[in-house]
Design brief:
Heat Shock Protein 90; Ribosomal Protein S5, domain 2; flat; 20 helices; five-stranded mixed β-sheet; 641 residues
Length: 641
């Protein structure tokens, strides 16, 4: 690889217009995976929702078109089309210029989710084509773009008018660019889940969803007049409710707060935060304020009614929230988020205001609903007992096991202690484990063989989880502990490996093993996934060896089909790998271990509520919902034939 010797003024590049977005899309939409792809829809929908918050939009239509594009229509005021002081139509600025939009004008939008003014222009930059129709001032205005660049001639400096209308609103159609995204097919399930959430957060808004890609057109209407009270009920529909939803609301310092809480007979918590209708996956100050204040209020009640005696320690925050499902939704006039994808709220005043409203309003509710109060404190009591029992189990099972394993089916560690460079492969079986130990780079690659399928943690109690030998070995190997809902000793800073790579056979059993491992990580070590440390290796299914020339690895049946079409007249031998153990160390290194040639799939958590529901359906004890899910998504499955 050639290197430039001099670092001088000529080394500095200036990216014009939307070039920066196309060069570094992850900075704006999080990733170029399906999660980032779906995010394009959310950016356009969020703009329409902002119109609703401003009082000018009551209906939104979202359509997944047959050609792979998406159309979003609203009945708001319509994007301004008049001449801007910059000398171009205002609409052109909105769709082609970063940090241009009406969200910076407090008179136009009191609160909004698109505070950075980059959403529409980013979607435009990452789309092969974007088509915009705007209804306002009695006319229909039209514009068109290709990869963020306008390709429609202006008429006297303004957008061409293609019709007349008495309606108002904006329609945006965009086709994701395959040069940018790993996949370009939107996930109907994830998009519907996000739209449903939006309807819960906006009780007077109606959202229409249509998927034209299916043989039979799918139409769904989302309208939730009960708001976030209905939201928590829906999230708990498959669980035994311990309380009715608790609703708290108030306003202070210009910040509006709504909180819905419900307890179920399960020992976990599900607390979700939203600011200006944007889901904050990593939480933020509004959740911190809620958790701190609610814990203080409940501990005060626990001592007042004698649940906690004078000698007893206070309930912990996780004790109080055990069994809790909660939605905290705030409307903030000037929110600050960490990152364009708005995963974490950073306003100190949000914490202060939410805490004040909880401190003021919760006692008013519980003073009038003593049975609900007793039910909540009963959940905390049970959780505290289980937590203390779990702490004893952890002490007995984990502290005795030192970080040193032999080579007989246990960890074969790497030489380096630099976690940022190290990676650990979880390999099923002695045969594959032996090959992997021989093939690896001992300097930075560790191998952890496991025997068969681990425990399904979705169906097991904490004591059984911690008693499982394979799970204990993984927890100890990773070095960062685990969280279980009764307390949390997980510390991501102690993780010994930057990459945790699941290396299973490319068959049904391998997929099952991978699913069980991912369930363990998701339920007990979710930060491993959230921080981007969990990967799945993608070993090849085949090797084709032509009569002449070099062999070639093929990773799936689609690749094999393409190879056969491309090489119809050539003779070749086809080798099918039924398991990693069939590869010799050189082949395993070349295909699966070598960072220069291997394929890895990084695991991400999309919509947390949807992810939790799907995990519960697929890995839980209730069979009928699992069958229904499998039938519904059978067409999406990748079959091993």
């Amino acid at each position: 690889m050639s290197k430039k010797e001099n670092y001088d003024a000529s080394s500095i590049q200036v990216l014009e217009g939307l070039e920066a977005v196309r060069m570094r899309p992850g900075m704006y939409i999080g990733s170029t995976s399906r999660k980032g792809l779906n995010h394009l829809i959310y950016e356009i929908v969020d703009n329409a929702v902002d119109e609703h918050l401003a009082g000018f939009c009551s209906h939104i239509w979202v359509t997944l078109e047959k050609n792979g594009s998406c159309t979003v229509t609203d009945d708001g005021r319509g994007v301004p089309v008049g001449m801007h002081e910059k000398g171009v139509p205002a609409e052109r600025l909105v769709y082609t210029t970063l940090h241009a939009g009406g969200k910076f004008d407090s008179d136009a939008y009191k609160t909004s989710g698109g505070l950075h003014g980059v959403g529409s222009s980013v979607v435009n930059a990452l789309s092969t084509e974007m088509d915009v129709l705007i209804k306002r001032d009695g006319a229909i205005h039209h514009d068109h773009f290709r990869r963020g660049v306008p390709d429609m001639e202006l008429v006297n400096g303004l957008l061409p008018v293609v019709g007349k209308t008495k309606e108002t609103g904006t329609t945006v159609n965009f086709l994701p660019d395959p040069e940018i995204f790993d996949v370009t097919r939107f996930s109907s399930t994830e998009v519907k889940s996000r739209l449903h959430e939006t309807a819960y957060l906006n009780p007077t808004l109606t959202i229409y969803f249509r998927d034209l890609r299916k043989e039979e057109t799918e139409d769904t209407v989302f309208c939730e007049p009960d708001g976030i009270i209905g939201f928590v009920r829906d999230m708990n529909k498959n669980d035994e409710a311990v309380t009715e939803p608790i609703f708290l609301e108030g306003e202070d310092e210009g910040i509006e707060v709504q909180i819905a809480i419900q307890y179920v007979n399960e020992f976990h918590e599900n607390v979700m935060g939203y600011c200006n209708n944007i889901f904050n996956a990593d939480g933020g100050t509004h959740l911190t304020g809620f958790k701190t204040a609610f814990t203080q209020v409940m501990n005060s009640y626990a001592r007042e009614i004698g649940v906690l005696k004078e000698k007893d320690q206070n309930f912990t925050g996780p004790d109080i929230r055990s069994g809790m499902t909660a939605v905290i939704s705030i409307k903030h006039p000037d929110p600050r988020f960490e990152g364009q994808t708005k995963t974490k709220l950073d306003n100190p005043d949000a914490s202060r205001v939410v805490a004040k409203i909880v401190t003021d309003k919760a006692p008013h509710y519980f003073d009038r609903n003593l049975e609900t109060l007793k039910a909540v404190l009963s959940c905390a009591e049970k959780s505290a007992k289980i937590r203390k029992s779990a702490e004893k189990v952890k002490s007995n099972l984990l502290t005795k096991q030192k970080f040193s394993f032999d080579s007989n089916g246990k960890l074969a560690n790497c030489i380096s202690k630099d976690a940022s460079k190290c990676e650990i492969f979880i390999v099923e079986g002695d045969s594959a484990g032996g090959s992997a130990k021989t093939a690896r780079d001992r300097n930075y690659q560790a191998i952890l063989p496991i025997r068969g399928k681990i425990l399904n943690v979705e169906k097991a109690s904490i004591d059984k989880v911690l008693a499982n030998a394979e799970i204990k070995t993984m927890i100890t190997s990773f070095g960062c502990g685990f969280s279980e809902g009764y307390g949390n000793d997980f510390d991501i800073t102690k993780l010994r490996y930057d990459k945790i790579i699941i290396m299973a056979d490319a068959d049904v059993d391998g997929a099952h093993i991978g699913t069980l491992l991912l369930t363990l990580f998701y339920r007990y070590m979710p930060d491993l996934i959230g921080e981007g440390h969990v990967y799945v290796a993608m070993p090849p299914l085949y090797k084709v060896i032509p009569a002449k020339g070099e062999g070639e690895y093929l990773y799936d049946d689609k690749a094999l089909e393409q190879y056969r079409k491309k090489n119809k007249s050539k003779k070749f031998t086809l080798q099918r790998y039924k398991g990693l153990g069939e590869m010799d160390p050189e082949q395993l290194w070349e295909t699966t271990l070598n960072p220069e040639t291997r394929r890895l799939r990084r695991i991400e958590i999309g919509n947390p509520g949807l992810s939790s529901d799907i995990t519960d359906v697929l890995m839980g004890t209730d069979v009928p919902p699992r069958k229904a899910f499998i039938y519904e998504h059978a067409r999406d499955a990748q079959l091993d034939v």
